[in-house]
Amino acid sequence: MLFIKLGWKMGIKNLTHEVKEFALQQDVDLVGIADVERFVNAPPGLRPTDFLPRAKSVIVLGFRLPLGALEAAKRSYEGLRSAAQIYGVHAYQVVPNLRLLFAANALARFLEKKGFITMPLPSGPLGGLTISHRHAAVAAGLGEFGWMGLAVTPQYGPRQRWVSVITRAELEPDPLYKGPKLCDRSKCSVCVKVCPTGAIPEGESKRVVIGDRIFEYAKINPAKCAIACEGLREFGIPLPENPTWEDLEKLRQLLPRFPPGSLFTPYPTYFCGRCLIYCPIGEDKLLKEYFGREE
Ligand code: SF4
Ligand code: SF4
Predict the structure, then answer these.
(1) Residue-wise DSSP of 128-156
(2) Structural domain boundaries of the chain?
């Protein structure tokens, strides 16, 4: 009996190792694994088992964003508006999401060949109605939340995009992140300051329980964030102090229309992401690692 149990555990360990090796061969930079119990506090309809009953594990893949593409976003905020599309394509909607979609699909096929039904989820804007990839990344031990609500990692800070893959394979979960605190609100409030629509409050927060840890981050106003991300301020049409989704919808009706599901933002080349781009977490480490200098 003991030998059967040991053999079964070894099987899980070996499969976990194979999954991680395969994932990293798909041109992603980070891979972590959570068991589905870590999602028990997620809202109904947004849990892995809602999508794949009897799922056992969630594999999360992270794709690091090129620093040059983030530099392009900074140029666009400084006035060179044509640079916004560089960020939009290479760090926001197109390349990271396509890479992640292909990696997730390949991983699902890999696990299905081994006999486990595996569901690759969409990434980016298309993934909004499935499980939250940023929560999944934290549940998979890849990092914690920054005040701006994104998952931040010791390697790259907030400079990555995510996708999740749900599987019936039992895999070894990674421990939750327990390293040094990545976002220290007593020393930094850059994201609050740079947010152009005040979507990130200074003090109001939200708590989530994942495994044995409680995480806290700002209670973001999603309508205010959407105003900036969709470029709705660009048209000089006054917006209410506390806009509702209905206010946004009325405004959208006034603007040029693009085909539904377009990969590109339907409005002028405008993407926000200032909270990601200017967050200092991991920046020094990245510059040192890739360019051999401190800053
Ligand atoms: S993406 Fe822009 S508008 Fe949204 S929270 Fe971040 S800084 Fe604010
Ligand atoms: S900008 Fe500062 S406060 Fe905001 S998430 Fe990053 S480290 Fe935390």
Answers:
(1) GGSS-HHHHHHHTTS-EE-TTSSEEBTTT
(2) 14-172+182-291
Query: Using an 8 Å Cβ cutoff, are 122 and 133 in contact?
Result: no
Secondary structure (3-state) at 48: helix
pLDDT of residue 261: 45
Evaluate: CB of 183 within 6 angstroms of ligand 2. Answer: yes
Q: Is 194 in the pocket of ligand 2 (CB under 6 A)?
A: no
User: From the CA of 88, how far away is ligand 2's center (Å)?
Assistant: 22
Which residue's alpha carbon is at the smallest distance from atom 7 of ligand 1?
A: 195
- Ligand 2: does its nearest atom lie under 6 Å from the Cβ of 200? no
Q: What does the pLDDT read at residue 230?
A: 79
> Which SS3 state, helix, strand or coil, does residue 31 take?
strand
Rg of the chain over all Cα atoms, to the nearest angstrom: 20
The secondary structure of the chain in percent helix, strand, coil, rounded to multiples of 5, reads: 45, 15, 45
At residue 95, φ and ψ (nearest 5 deg) are -60, -50
- Going from the first residue of the chain to its last (295 residues), give the mean pLDDT of each consecutive group of 10, the final group possibly shorter: 79 96 96 98 95 98 95 90 86 88 97 98 78 97 98 97 97 97 94 94 96 96 88 74 86 65 49 93 86 66
